[in-house]
Amino acid sequence: KAGVTQTPRYLIKTRGQQVTLSCSPISGHRSVSWYQQTPGQGLQFLFEYFSETQRNKGNFPGRFSGRQFSNSRSEMNVSTLELGDSALYLCASSFVSSYNEQFFGPGTRLTVL
Amino acid sequence: QKEVEQNSGPLSVPEGAIASLNCTYSDRGSQSFFWYRQYSGKSPELIMSIYSNGDKEDGRFTAQLNKASQYVSLLIRDSQPSDSATYLCAVGGPGNTGKLIFGQGTTLQVKP
Question: CA of B39: which chain A residue's CA is closest?
Fold first, then answer.
């Protein structure tokens, strides 16, 4: 069974730009969660989608948004990039919820210059 | 108080020894608990899940859960240099959603 895939793997952007990251979950998984990982803050929850609906959102500004498509694939968007948005962005998929095991993709390394 | 706490380490053990990693959590209603391993530059890899009080064994790994004490631990027997990584404790967030709350991770060094 194929794992979680994320594209692109690396991105370099400048301040003020916007970026869209993509995540394809494991086949059959309907929940997709997004996390931001930085050396200082660790892994922080951004939001989670299930059946095309955002079920939960972390403590991030509105510049961070996402969506999920009918095939469970998900995208996240960051607008008006700031230097502090430089991070590893990870998506994880599970069958239904955080009660189920979550499996992570390889991540997208975003660098904002 | 952080929601999930781990000792950042590094925890250094000799090859062949038992490594013991600990985690405490604040939400008494938490129901799902996970251990992930993360190598430098890689994404987290799930190694154990545990839901009930007691021990759960999988190969060289044993997860222990004590809900009364709000404590989760991971034991790695016969530690190998390849076990050197950061170990992340994660707790399922409240409600039926896909939120995991992570600790800061413990760096394990296994010396040959």
Answer: A106
Q: In 10 A of CB A40, how many CB atoms?
A: 7
| All residues at 6 or more sequence positions from A62 whose CB lies less than 8 Å from its CB, including other chains | none
> What are B41's two structure tokens?
């530059």
Cβ proximity of A78 and A64 under 8 Å: yes
Distance of CA A95 to CAs A30, A34, B40, B92, Å? 5, 15, 27, 14
Considering only CB atoms, which chain A residues are within 8 Å of B42? 106
- CA dihedral for B56, B61, B66, B71, sign (positive or negative): negative
Q: For chain B, what is the mean pLDDT?
A: 94
- Sign of the alpha-carbon torsion through B49, B53, B58, B60: positive
Output the CA torsion sign for B96, B99, B103, B105.
positive
B interface residues, A as partner, C-beta within 8 Å: 31-32, 34, 36, 42-46, 49, 51, 88, 90, 92-93, 95-105
pLDDT for position B1: 66
Q: What is the pLDDT of residues B46-93, one digit of tens each?
A: 999 999 999 999 999 999 999 999 999 999 999 999 999 999 999 997
